Amino acid sequence: MNFFDGSLYPENQQKLVITAAPYGPEWVPSDFPEDIAVTMEAQIQKAVDCYNAGATVLHVHARELDGKGSKRLSKFNELLAGIRARAPGLILQVGGSISFAPETEGEVAKWLSDDTRHMLAELRPAPDQVTIAINTNQMNVVEQMCPADLVGTSMAEPAAYRAYREMTIPAGPEWVEEHIRRLSGRGIQTHFQLATISQLETVERMMRRGVCNVPLILTWVAIGGGFEAPNIYNLANFVRACPDGAVLTLEASMLNVLPLNMMAIALGLHVRCGIEDNLWTQHRDRKMSTVEQIEQLVRLSGEFGRDVANGEEAREIYRIGTFYADADETLAQNGFAPNRKPGQKGLTQHAA
Description:
Its cofactor is Zn(2+). By secondary structure, the chain is α/β, with parallel strands linked by helices. The protein contains twelve helices and ten strands. The protein has helices at residues 40-53, 73-86, 114-118, 147-150, 158-165, 173-185, 197-208, 232-241, 257-267, 290-304, 311-318, 327-334, and strands at residues 18-20, 57-60, 91-94, 129-133, 137-138, 168-169, 189-194, 217-221, 247-251, 270-273.
């Protein structure tokens, strides 16, 4: 991405797209009973509340009545249908992990089988997006968390802590390419959740081979533990590596969420918040609901002079429903240099 004179002026930036992650599958209801929705009606209402507060993308996980994260596609179908009916303006983004929460005490937190994850392409009603990880990777979500982040929560228990500390993401190349093919075939957009520049480079190579003909809509997930850390050097390197046609959202963990989101607002990027990422105010004097976090970002974006996108504007920014015919169109629309033609020497660039 290029930042030249005027790039930080709000009148030259896209409106802000706010992604809300209100379901927090890693937590149990007793961790934040005031904000963790359990019944289906409460889960649907949570989506409505997030939309009314200013979020236009909803990161969807479902919860069973016993409080555990749901791994049933039927439960997701019910939730998606309910949200579509009550908040049709929301971009529905299903978490590609389904629920990585451990089913019983002492179990490792893990994603479901490859075949089961492919079934996300069969959800009805179809979501707008499904998130996807690239390259099998460690996902130790507690590495950057301190005891104050976990005090009084279920994740402070040794068994739960170990379960999330040892979690990995299965995302080998054969599965990834097949998953993108199935999602695209159903008109569902792939949303890339990337931990490092090397994963971005893998996405570019897939696009160059013509097996990933989709817009580059992505989130930089800076949570440590196999992912990059949310510092300014890593951020600058990742932003610089993204082509100009990419749409980039930033994601962090716990008290890193707000500072990183403020950087995103200033740079013209997009933001994510919610109890899946952070439970606390910056002073850790109390827990902070997802709606409160959204309202905070709306307020801060207003102070920066940057308007917040509505549902229709967010769909346009995210290019929902857009797919490309081949590698050449994909590279051009995403802002990558074109593939080298046979016999062509030197660096490549798109024709004016």
